[in-house]
Design brief:
Helices cover about 35% and strands about 20% of the residues. Strands 12-11-13-14-16-15-21 form a seven-stranded mixed beta sheet, sandwiched between helices. A six-stranded mixed beta sheet has the order 4-5-3-6-7-8, with helices on both faces. Strand 11, helix 10 (about 285-295) and strand 12 (about 300-305) form a beta-alpha-beta unit. One of its GO terms (molecular function) is 2-oxoglutarate synthase activity. Keywords: Oxidoreductase.
Length: about 650
């Protein structure tokens, strides 16, 4: 859904006007977490609330969290699915640390999430699910709704299942089918509490269930019942307003990281004039890139769902050999399977974009949880000397630009490029300012059109290089007079003939490395509002951008100075990085791994980077990084 910043979103407050007087509290930000069983529709509920917040004009950031198992046992903690949305009237960086409001649809959801709710926070529970069996299943000895478990919180007990069935009684739906709409009841209640627009959700439901209009109307009735419950019950004496954010003017839409990657690839295809083949195999959390790109055939996008990871990347590299742009998408386990073909792309020096949406490992690991532990695999996970550029987006919206940058490097330097997203970015969402297409970089390439042999033979030599980029000529198969050899055995410099000469192998290895080392990478930019007084630098890469940035804001509000910098290009690294690292007393590097980039920087720059790591399958909290940064600054200032 798109909206214009600073537009008329506030007019939507009049969509459903309260009939009774309630106190209206104006807030600058709110964090809401919807939690329930994986079959309770929490992802849809959270997504719809997010869409209405986006349409209203709030800045926002989301964090879906769902079970790794396809269908964990119902009512158990491993089966809990949640969706957290943080919306505000100013620029925000994270989905929020702790929810101000927890909507718990069953005992498992309450038990799994209550510890994150700060004292004084609001807890809304579906009392119908608190049966003795359901409570015993998750380890409650007594009823948490009746003992002191919820004493520190503002609690609203709502019989959502019963109220939903009552609202849908006239529809003729079965009890079971009617109860499935209780998530829409919860959405309606929260929409009333926070003055969210409602028309968009009703239109969405009619479109989603267009082939089942009775189901669409049932969900709309449940949604309205939740809104009316908030309006008529005496339980809620206060409603809340969060004004639209003052964002840069333009047209925005809510976007997830995977969707932004897909759109970036579409734009890259258009700006390069090349058809794109996505050769891939479905894998969590990267599958949505395939799903989205498959909708855009009219832009010259061909999607091929292969029988396995190896076939997927083989097709992609074959497309590049044929003059298209080959792309493949996967997660860490798939990168392991694709490694030989990536090495083939390094040797044949063909453009290829490899998207790795990282998840918890090793092996199958934690398919639905986030991690940053594939960095060393991306840098070195191939046999032989097989250097590839590596870049990492920092937010969901930034995935669009990262996909274009990966394409630029792949085409200009004739090389595979690894793009490291992760689960937090892929599934999270935020407003994206839709760019002017004409402002995007020109990615057009020139194919070889005539023989280029330097010995005057009139032949085409595939390894004659551009003196500036060291990229080899790219000849489309079938071009008259440009026959050449290509493949997985070492090539002779220039001619491309198979070569076992030791000196030639040494030369080719060094040429391929020099090509990657010579890629033009922008200098790293440091954010330091203190004007250079900061003695500590917070450095990061990938999805740690938001938590690090939010933590730095908090530290600065405490009156302390801290600088922040974030790396997009991980190979090659920015030329000024060494000088920046050496200009601070301490460099702290939070990573969702055991310190992989820290190890690389220590080895390359001989700087004692302070590594702070977390591999819990969840993003950093700004609160925890604030504490880490504060302690480090105090330690430095105490020396």
């Amino acid at each position: 859904m798109s909206t214009s910043a600073n537009g008329n979103g506030a007019d939507a407050l009049t969509a459903l006007s309260p009939a009774r007087q309630t106190e209206i509290s104006k807030l600058d930000r709110v964090v809401i977490r919807f939690a329930g069983d994986s079959g309770d529709g929490m992802q849809l509920t959270g997504d719809r609330f997010t869409s209405e917040a986006a349409a209203f004009g709030n800045d926002l950031s989301t964090m879906p969290n769902f079970p790794a198992e396809i269908r964990a046992p119902q009512g158990t903690i491993p089966g809990v699915s949640s969706f957290q949305v943080h919306f505000a009237d100013y620029d925000i960086l994270t989905p929020g640390d702790r929810p101000d409001v927890l909507v718990a649809m069953n005992p498992a959801a309450l038990k799994a999430n209550l510890s994150d709710v700060p004292h004084g926070g609001t807890v809304i529970v579906n009392t119908d699910e608190f049966s003795g069996r359901n409570m015993t299943k998750v380890g409650y000895d007594g009823n948490p709704l009746e003992d002191d478990t919820l004493a520190p919180f503002q609690v609203h007990k709502v019989a959502m299942s019963t109220l939903t069935r009552g609202a849908l009684e006239a529809t003729g739906l079965s009890k079971k089918d009617a109860e499935r709409a209780k998530n829409m009841f919860a959405l309606g209640l929260l929409s009333w509490m926070y003055h969210r627009p409602t028309e968009g959700t009703e239109a969405f439901l009619r479109e989603k269930f267009a082939k089942k209009p009775d189901i669409a109307e049932a969900n709309i009735l449940a949604f309205r019942a939740g809104w009316n419950y908030g309006e008529t019950t005496e339980s809620f004496a206060t409603t809340f307003q969060v004004a639209p954010a003052k964002l840069a003017r333009g047209t925005y839409r809510q976007i997830t990281g995977n969707t932004a990657l897909a759109y970036g690839l579409v734009a890259a295809g258009q700006r390069s004039g090349l058809p794109i083949l996505l050769g891939t195999y479905p894998i969590t959390p990267a599958s949505d890139v395939l799903h989205e790109l498959s909708k855009h055939k009219h832009f010259g996008i061909l999607t091929f769902q292969a029988e396995d990871e190896i076939a997927g990347i083989g097709a992609a590299l074959g497309a590049s050999y044929g003059g298209a742009l080959g792309v493949t998408s996967t997660s860490g386990p798939g990168v392991a399977l694709k490694s030989e073909t990536i090495g083939l792309g390094v040797m044949t020096e063909l453009p290829l974009v490899v998207i790795d949406v990282q998840r918890g490992g090793p092996s199958t690991g934690l398919p639905t949880k986030t991690e940053q532990a594939d960095l060393l695999q991306a840098l070195h996970g191939r046999n032989g000397e097989s250097p590839v550029p590596v870049i990492a987006p920092q937010t969901p919206a930034d995935c669009f630009d990262a996909a274009i940058e990966a394409t630029r490097i792949a085409l200009k330097y004739r090389t595979p490029v690894l793009l490291l997203s992760d689960g937090a970015i892929a599934n999270g969402s935020e407003p994206w300012l839709i760019p002017d297409v004409d402002s995007l970089p020109d990615l057009r390439v020139e194919f070889a059109k005539e023989p280029n042999a330097t010995d005057g033979s009139g032949e085409f030599w595939p390894y004659v290089r551009d003196p500036e980029t060291l990229a080899r000529a790219w000849a489309v198969p079938g071009t008259a007079g440009l026959q050449h050899r290509i493949g997985g055995l070492e090539k002779a410099d220039g001619t491309g003939h198979i070569s076992y000469d030791p000196d030639n192998h040494d030369k080719m290895v060094r040429l391929r490395q020099a090509k990657i080392d010579g890629i033009d990478v922008p200098d790293l930019v440091v954010d330091d509002p203190s004007g250079g007084k900061a003695r500590v630098l917070a450095l990061g890469w990938g999805s740690t951008y938001g938590p690090i940035g939010a933590a730095c804001r908090r530290v600065r509000k405490q009156g302390m100075a801290i600088a922040q910098a974030h790396l997009r290009h991980l190979n090659p690294l920015p030329a000024n990085l060494g000088a920046i690292l050496n200009s601070y007393d301490t460099v702290v590097l939070p990573e969702m791994n055991l310190g992989q980039l820290a190890m690389v920087l220590r080895a390359k720059y001989l700087v004692d980077v302070h590594s702070y790591t977390k591999v819990a399958g969840l993003p950093f909290k700004a609160e925890e990084l604030q504490g880490v940064f504060t302690d480090i600054i105090k330690g430095v200032e105490g020396k």
